[in-house]
């Protein structure tokens, strides 16, 4: 070996001496402060990447619990009053809407219990309106694709329970219940108007009509439409299939709204119809008080279907927009307004059960009469 690599003089190589000398000159390289800082940074990063963020513990929402108790009380009261009413088309109208309301209330109670035992936690409650923003690169007609997910966010906002967004099953069941009540009200209202008009025009026939079976058959369509709404919101389908299905849903809702408006307008002429003596002395309440019942139901319809207006506005504007795009029309439509209507439609799912139960007690004649007799002693017959 050469003398350049082996040196037995006891002195280190020049390169090593130079390195040590530079280290001694720069004390920051070997200082305890730098070493401690480096270790702390490494440990902090390790903790940050391995430990999940702490969620807020379960805190019951008193507003949610109070409103849920009120909804259950109203449903039980309506069901109890229904048991005291004889064969009546308004009774079947209410009963076929109480059933999904009862299921929804039961599931809300289950959700309340599950939220208290789940690990998802809660968030802070506030009354501010939750305005959902549209997703990027999507049109106004694409709101239905994310209806279940958006409704879960709305439920989380107003209930404070994160279980609605962490577990999709809870948002799906809640959406199915709310959407079915929406469609059932639309279809059942037209059926009630049919029998209310018939009680004035053909009072001798309505007594023998299969009223219960008519309401059972009409519920098949809301079940089908609710299933379509839910499946479209959960699963991705081709765009042409989605547009076709959505067109059927929107045109049906607009058509039903037009029919209800026409039936409401036709009711004004039936109020002028003269009642004969047979009608006045009829033992059937739905024949004897047919005009009063129709008048109160018209008011009920106007109030309860004011909650349907956001969906009808969204459906009408999007249909007009699609037709304009197809035919090449350059008309201006307030699509930003339509984009705000669909989230409002989902939010009103939370309001519709209370509006229906309260208005049914006040404006539907058989329930109004029995409710007043039960709570007002001066209205009772001795």
Structural features:
71% helix; mainly alpha; Rhopdopsin 7-helix transmembrane proteins; single chain; globular; 382 residues
Strand content: under 5%
Largest sheet: none
Mean pLDDT: 80
What letter string, H or E per element, gives the SSE order? HHHHHHHHHHHHHHHHHH
CATH 2nd-level architecture: Up-down Bundle
Number of domain units: 1
> Which spans of ≥5 residues are poorly predicted at pLDDT below 50?
1-10, 12-54
Question: Could you characterize the architecture of this molecule?
Answer:
With about 375 residues, the protein is mainly α. The protein has one domain (about 60-125, about 140-375): Rhopdopsin 7-helix transmembrane proteins. It is about 70% helix and about 0% strand. Helix 7 (about 170-200) packs antiparallel against helix 10 (about 220-235) and helix 14 (about 290-305) packs antiparallel against helix 17 (about 350-365). It is globular and about 60 Å long. Residues about 1-10 and about 10-55 have low confidence and may be disordered.
Please render the helix and strand layout as text:
Layout (H helix, E strand, L loop, with lengths): L13 H12 L6 H19 L11 H22 L5 H29 L29 H13 L3 H4 L1 H34 L1 H4 L4 H8 L1 H15 L4 H32 L6 H4 L4 H4 L1 H15 L4 H19 L7 H13 L4 H12 L1 H11 L7
Keywords: Membrane, Transmembrane, Transmembrane helix
């Amino acid at each position: 070996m050469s003398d350049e690599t082996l040196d037995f003089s006891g002195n280190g190589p020049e390169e090593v001496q130079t390195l040590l000398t530079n280290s001694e000159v720069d004390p920051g390289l070997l200082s305890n402060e730098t070493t401690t800082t480096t270790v702390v940074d490494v440990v902090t990063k390790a903790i940050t990447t391995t430990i999940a963020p702490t969620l807020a513990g379960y805190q019951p929402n008193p507003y949610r619990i109070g409103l849920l108790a009120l909804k259950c009380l109203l449903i039980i009261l309506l069901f109890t009053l229904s048991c005291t009413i004889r064969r009546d088309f308004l009774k079947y109208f209410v009963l076929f809407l109480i059933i999904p309301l009862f299921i929804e209330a039961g599931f809300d109670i289950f959700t309340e219990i599950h939220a208290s035992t789940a690990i998802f936690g809660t968030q802070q409650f506030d009354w501010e309106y939750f305005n959902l923003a549209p997703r990027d690169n999507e049109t106004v007609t694409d709101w239905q694709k994310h209806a279940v997910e958006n409704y879960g966010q709305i439920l989380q906002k107003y209930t404070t329970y994160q279980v609605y967004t962490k577990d999709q099953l809870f948002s799906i069941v809640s959406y199915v219940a709310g959407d079915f009540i929406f469609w059932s009200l639309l279809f059942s209202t037209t059926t009630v108007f049919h029998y209310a008009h018939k009680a004035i025009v053909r009072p001798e026939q309505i007594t023998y009509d299969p009223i219960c079976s008519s309401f059972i058959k009409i519920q098949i369509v809301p079940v089908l439409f609710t299933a379509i709404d839910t499946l479209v919101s959960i699963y991705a389908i081709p765009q042409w299939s989605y547009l076709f299905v959505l067109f059927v849903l929107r045109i049906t809702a607009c058509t039903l709204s037009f029919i209800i408006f026409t039936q409401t307008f036709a009711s004004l002429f039936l109020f002028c119809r003269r009642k004969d003596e047979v009608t006045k002395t009829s033992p059937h309440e739905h024949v004897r008080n047919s005009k009063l019942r129709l008048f109160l139901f018209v008011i009920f319809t106007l109030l309860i279907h004011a909650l349907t207006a956001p969906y009808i506005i969204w459906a009408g504007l999007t249909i007009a927009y699609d037709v304009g795009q197809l035919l090449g029309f350059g008309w201006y439509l307030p699509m930003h307004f339509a984009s705000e209507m669909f989230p409002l439609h989902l939010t009103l799912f939370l309001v519709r059960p209370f509006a229906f139960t309260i208005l049914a007690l006040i404006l539907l004649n058989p329930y109004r009469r029995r409710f007043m007799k039960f709570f007002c002693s001066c209205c009772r017959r001795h």
